């Protein structure tokens, strides 16, 4: 398949965020990827296989859990939790990883390249590739490999190769650079599975489309359980994939949409990862979006207790929804997120991922009577952080 023009603009909102800022060598693979994606969505065989894998391998639909004891403590009438923590491998990442791995196989690719920060996306890709019989190489910064050793072990058990990245700060930003470089060198045999609604078009579109299963299920589940829509829909925002996945099916409804960003441990540059407000429009990793940068345009350092939210840019579609006023962005500090996690543990017996805890932390501030929260992942991976911080 050789495409010669994109079918979708890949631009979002009044500021034209998104786009495709990729090296010349990647343009044809990106054009072909969009064409394959559009064709797959319209192919009943692809849809049938995707639905079957989501049901029998991923464990969908994930439950919608009422949280009455949490609601009472927060002074909210109703809180509903969309339980992506119960999806296979422990977070929403598997929805996208599995769907893109199916797309890769359909395109005749034998190998998958991925990047990972905390390791959740890498584990999801490694699992999906094992399931589908694809070779998998995951690029990961050396610092993250040391911090997230159990996830490195999980990826290797699933047969993936974990490639250490030693450039720069040796974390996610450099891992993305390295994965893009590896893909450019091998794009006829390999597919690159990007882990969030980021990167050059068509990746943001692919990822939010495959993740929107979260919101489609949740919308139907909450209508059935409560008989009406919630006043507010809340999710944490790293790159924006679980947030968009939950919110996109509610865009045309009269509900408040809220993204919780990482407020870290301070408001100065380098102390947080809140892009809405302090961020300015710039280009990173192939797309134009809100970006934490200094006066000269250098990407700023970020800080967050949660690795999954610790990224200097926000995906272009979610950033556009924030700039255009449809999505409200709130911040939760490290301390507030820890408190949110402790409250959910004690009231409902659910250990949330540190990322999801940022969503929990803003619930009480909304003044809403009923809230749907996307619980993006489980907290087993964060146990040592919780122990150190909460003295558990
Ligand atoms: C990766 C991750 C996130 C952040 O990524 P998004 O693309 O913003 O969803 C949030 N929660 C969990 C559990 C994650 O693993």
Automatic annotation (TrEMBL):
It is an enzyme of class 4 (lyase). InterPro entries: Trp_synth_b_CS, Trp_synth_beta, Trp_synth_beta/beta-like, TrpB-like_PALP, TrpB-like_PALP_sf. The keyword Ribosomal protein does not apply. Pfam families: PALP. It catalyses: (1S,2R)-1-C-(indol-3-yl)glycerol 3-phosphate + L-serine = D-glyceraldehyde 3-phosphate + L-tryptophan + H2O. Its EC number is 4.2.1.20. Pathway: Amino-acid biosynthesis; L-tryptophan biosynthesis; L-tryptophan from chorismate: step 5/5. It comes from the Bacteria. Its cofactor is pyridoxal 5'-phosphate. The modification N6-(pyridoxal phosphate)lysine is found at residue 93. GO terms for cellular component: cytoplasm. One of its GO terms (molecular function) is tryptophan synthase activity. Keywords: Amino-acid biosynthesis, Aromatic amino acid biosynthesis, Lyase, Pyridoxal phosphate, Tryptophan biosynthesis. Transmembrane segments: none annotated. Residues 59-377 form the Tryptophan synthase beta chain-like PALP domain. Tetramer of two alpha and two beta chains. HAMAP family: Trp_synth_beta. The beta subunit is responsible for the synthesis of L-tryptophan from indole and L-serine. Belongs to the TrpB family. PANTHER family: TRYPTOPHAN SYNTHASE, TRYPTOPHAN SYNTHASE-RELATED. This is Tryptophan synthase beta chain.
